[in-house]
């Protein structure tokens, strides 16, 4: 990836989502444990609900009742991954 | 690593068995050079989501990926086949435009996917597999999804020359991840082949086309349709965003299902990787691929929304088919899978 000393590393802040940091990244936990991610961008959990902490796993998402509640969620039951 | 390296694309499959007049005509054209001129007219009255049209379209699209055994590669650009493909695509696309919920903006369509259900979602395949799924159902699911995952991210690569600036840079960064970030053994299609090996499935490319019902072919055809047409670049981006947004939580449930049913480590790894990768991809695709495209071409907003909604519409049809069969204890495939072979004694693999 095109990183160099002259190129500042970009961090993107989203109040409702993870911190996005250009990778690779090391995160040092309270107990000194070092977590490493080599992705081009790394999503760091800020809601503390992630089950893969310190990495985001989308656990920050708003919760709704399946098939009810929100206007446009009724015809969009959650789908299955295919990326 | 427990499984030897699996390269599914060393194989080109044989043509799938025809399911009606259209797919029979396509096979005859590919194998015996028969004319398809008369078939294009029939496309207009075919069931747009039916077995025959979807298989005919799948076969014609596969000429752009891996081709078929016994079919010369040059047939990819056969004008007669392309004319037939266009007639089938129009039938499919017109039906989708009529059937998906209209009127949402791209932002609204994506926002609807950015929520998670509280508790169990009866309409979701991954919820079902996580809580109640049996190993045979996970094997069927993987066999069907292999028609896409063994060429994972390939249909989306076609959009790259149609993008520029922020959208292009972000799209290429995500695709780089999908293609293993420079390492062949981490290409997502390879991880999926490893998953299939863990489940005792055949990893050769296209092997399960005959087993796949129309509901499983349609989402794969949708990606090829959007990917191959520059005019549908907005829909392709919407489709891709929809896939990335829904992937992470669903992958977590599928990884849990594979752990619970005792599938092997490679099977779990595929979905574990997607939990983390797609939490990133979701952010990048929404901000920079969708955001960048719509900043440059705001008139494509409705197309992006259509791509999101069409993906949801076809995935819901597939989910309904799978869950209806499985809840009755029946196979959801057109032909049953071979039983899973007993585990082999593990032998060290030199690499």
Which terms would index this structure?
heterodimer, A: 83 residues, mainly beta, B: 2 domains, globular
Structure description:
The complex is a heterodimer of chains A (83) and B (351). Chain A has 83 residues and is mostly beta strands. Chain A has a domain at 7-61. Chain A contains no helices and 6 strands. Chain A has strands at residues 11-12, 19-22, 25-28, 34-37, 41-44, 62-64. Chain A has a 3-stranded antiparallel beta sheet, with no helix packed on it. Chain A has a two-stranded antiparallel sheet with strand order 3-4. In chain A, strand 3 and strand 4 form a beta hairpin. Chain A is globular and about 50 Å long. The two termini of chain A are 23 Å apart. With 351 residues, chain B is mainly α. Chain B folds into 2 domains: 8-99, no CATH class; 106-327, Heme oxygenase-like (Heme Oxygenase, Chain A). Chain B contains 14 helices and 1 strand, in the order αααααβααααααααα. In chain B, helix 11 (214-228) packs antiparallel against helix 14 (301-327). The model of chain B has no long low-confidence stretch (mean pLDDT 93). Classes of the chains: A mainly beta (83), B mainly alpha (351). The interface between A and B is large, with 37 and 61 residues.
Q: Topology, pairings included?
A:
The complex is a heterodimer of chains A (about 80) and B (about 350).
Chain A: E1 11-12, E2 19-22, E3 25-28, E4 34-37, E5 41-44, E6 62-64
Chain B: H1 21-32, H2 39-43, H3 51-62, H4 79-99, H5 106-111, E1 115-117, H6 125-131, H7 135-149, H8 154-157, H9 165-178, H10 188-198, H11 214-228, H12 233-260, H13 265-296, H14 301-327
Helix pairs in contact in B: 1-3, 3-4, 3-11, 6-12, 7-10, 9-13, 10-13, 11-14, 12-13, 12-14
CATH homology superfamily of the largest domain in chain B: Heme oxygenase-like
Per DSSP, the total helix count of chain A is 0
The CA-CA distance between the termini of chain A, in Å, is 23 Å
Strand count, sense and closure of the main sheet of chain A?
3 strands, antiparallel
Low-confidence sequence ranges of chain B: none
**Fraction of residues in H or I helices of chain A:** under 10%
Shape of chain A: globular
CATH topology of the largest domain in chain B: Heme Oxygenase, Chain A
Mean pLDDT of chain A: 81
Q: First CA to last CA of chain B: what distance?
A: 10 Å
Which overall shape of chain B is indicated by the principal axes computed on the Cα atoms? globular
- Number of self-contained structural domains of chain B: 2
Q: How does the helix and strand content of chain B classify structurally?
A: mainly alpha
Low-confidence blocks of residues of chain A: 69-78
- Radius of gyration of chain B in whole Å, from Cα? 20 Å
> Can you write the helix and strand succession of chain B as a string?
HHHHHEHHHHHHHHH
Total strand segments of chain B: 1
How would you sum up the major sheet of chain B? none
**What is the rounded Rg of chain A?**
16 Å
Alpha-beta classification of chain A: mainly beta
């Amino acid at each position: 990836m095109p990183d160099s000393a002259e190129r500042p590393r970009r961090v993107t802040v989203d109040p409702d989502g993870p911190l996005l940091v250009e990778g690779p990244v090391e995160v040092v936990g309270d107990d000194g444990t070092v977590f490493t991610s080599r992705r081009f961008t790394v999503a760091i959990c800020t809601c503390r609900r992630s089950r893969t902490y310190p990495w985001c796993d989308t656990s920050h998402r708003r919760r709704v009742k399946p098939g009810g509640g929100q206007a446009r969620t009724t015809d969009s039951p959650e789908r299955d991954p295919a990326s | 690593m427990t499984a030897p390296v699996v390269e599914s694309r060393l194989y080109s499959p044989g043509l799938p068995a025809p399911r009606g007049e259209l797919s029979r005509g396509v096979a005859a054209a590919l194998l015996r050079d028969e004319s398809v001129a008369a078939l294009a007219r029939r496309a207009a009255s075919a069931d747009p989501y039916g077995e025959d049209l979807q298989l005919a379209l799948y076969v014609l699209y596969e000429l752009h990926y891996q081709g078929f055994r016994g079919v010369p590669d040059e047939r990819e650009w056969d004008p007669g086949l392309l004319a037939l493909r266009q007639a089938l695509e129009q039938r499919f696309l017109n039906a989708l435009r009529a059937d998906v919920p209209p009127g949402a903006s791209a932002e609204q369509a994506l926002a609807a996917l950015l929520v998670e259900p509280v508790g169990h979602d009866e309409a979701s395949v991954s919820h079902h597999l996580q809580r109640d799924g049996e190993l045979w159902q996970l094997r069927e699911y993987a066999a069907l999804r292999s028609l896409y995952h063994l060429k994972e991210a390939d249909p989306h690569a076609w959009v790259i020359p149609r993008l520029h600036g922020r959208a292009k840079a972000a799209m290429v960064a995500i695709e780089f991840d999908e293609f293993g970030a420079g390492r062949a053994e981490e290409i997502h299609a390879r991880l999926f082949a490893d998953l299939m090996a863990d489940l005792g499935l055949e990893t050769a490319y296209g092997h399960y086309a005959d087993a796949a019902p129309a509901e499983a072919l349609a989402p794969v055809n949708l990606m090829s349709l959007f990917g191959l047409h520059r005019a549908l670049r907005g829909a392709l981006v919407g489709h891709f965003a929809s896939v990335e947004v829904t992937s992470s939580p669903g992958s977590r449930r599928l990884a849990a299902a594979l752990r619970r049913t005792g599938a092997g480590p490679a099977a779990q790894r595929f979905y574990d990787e997607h939990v983390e990768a797609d939490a990133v991809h979701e952010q990048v695709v929404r901000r920079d691929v969708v955001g960048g495209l719509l900043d440059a071409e705001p008139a494509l907003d409705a197309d992006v929304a259509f791509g999101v909604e069409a993906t949801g519409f076809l995935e819901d049809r597939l989910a309904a088919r799978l869950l209806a069969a499985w809840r009755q204890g029946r196979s959801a495939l057109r032909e049953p899978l071979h039983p899973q072979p007993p585990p082999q004694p593990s032998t060290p693999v030199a690499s």
